[in-house]
Amino acid sequence: MLDAHAHFEFYKKDAPRMIEECREKLTAVVDSITEYRKAHVWKSWEMLKPYFGFIFPTLGYHPNEARRGNWEKVKKVEEFILARRDEIVAIGEIGLDYHYAENETQRENQRKIFLHFLGLAAELNLPVVIHAREAEREAFELVQRVGVEAYFHSFAGSVELAREIAENGHPIGINTGIVFIPEVRAVAEALEIENMLVETDAPYMSPVKGRRNTPCNVQVAIEEVAKLKGIDFEEVESITERNAVSFFGLKL
To answer: What pTM did the predictor assign?
Structure first.
């Protein structure tokens, strides 16, 4: 199994143990190392670097950090990405999150910084990992404007938009929230498996209430998709893993 989106760095001291546990069950994990609050990309990178090969890193700037409009920090993260362009599999996560943006100024900060990193991805010929919340349509339109390949992780927008995104060649992330988020379930039901990646967004989106999510739980997302489609677990696992390997260019 392959988890297309997780955050081992958010486990902090528990990260090494969690990584070793998941290494026994999973082929690989794509970890979206993103500048967010106290989770600085340079600290997260050093923590996870010994596990690269099992972990495939992306680097980005979370929209909930972008709303602050700190361009000095943006420049530092950009320089960090440029120095590691050959070691990452995508730029991300980046995007728009209007749930937490409190006013138009914060949303405009998000838009400008999102476009900045979309432009960087285009320059480096890298795909992007998109975080879009209550702004899925706008995020998609900006991706189309810049012309980059995009993975819409943990997608919970409309079925109609999911189909449009998929028709334009961008994969959609079905996460472990499929067991309790109707929108995720509806999108999984509507899309072809060839348009999906499966993920946990661990330590978030736990399928078990009261417990911290782990990348090993990607099995739950695969199981639920298999039930919805009426096909074998192994077929969903194989197709979604192939999709992730192709999109990120993973060397397994």
So the answer is: 0.97
